[in-house]
UniProtKB/TrEMBL annotation:
Carboxymuconolactone decarboxylase-like domain residues: 15-96
Keyword Protein transport (UniProt): no
Keyword entries, A-Z: Oxidoreductase, Peroxidase
Annotated TM spans: none
Protein name as catalogued: Alkylhydroperoxidase
MF terms (GO), sorted A to Z: peroxiredoxin activity
Pfam family, one: CMD
Amino acid sequence: MDARFNMFDNEIAMKFFKRFANAGLVIQQSPLPTSTQELVSLRASQINGCGWCIDMHTKEAAAGGESAVRLNLVAAWRESTVFTEAEQAALALAEEGTRLADAYEGVSDETWAQVRKHYDDDQIAALVSLVALINAANRLAVIVHQKGGSYQPGMFAAAFD
């Protein structure tokens, strides 16, 4: 199935994407580790079934030096030994923050306590913002059926300067 609508060829969409990318830049430049950012983005994208974002964040993470083993195990991080406690806390937050409708409390107190244990306030601000941003990106791509497979690492860097 082809994309329903080409967001990259639309003036309004591109104006929006530039601002969206600027919000992402705040997170990228934060003290939250880049590897954690990519793992969180990948996990939320898996939950939301966003092929475009899975493709993007898998490739960006690999280009940044992330191992194939860790990338392959993100979907089963609870059953894996390759993630730190801090990464596990971030992945739990990503899952619970993505599945808000599945639990009356949203993010559990237990998960929040683990996040507080491993991250400082600036990292938490970036992490919470990242979960919100990747969920928005997933929705944009899924709504228009933007398919994964064609992304190349860094392909949007110049377009959104």
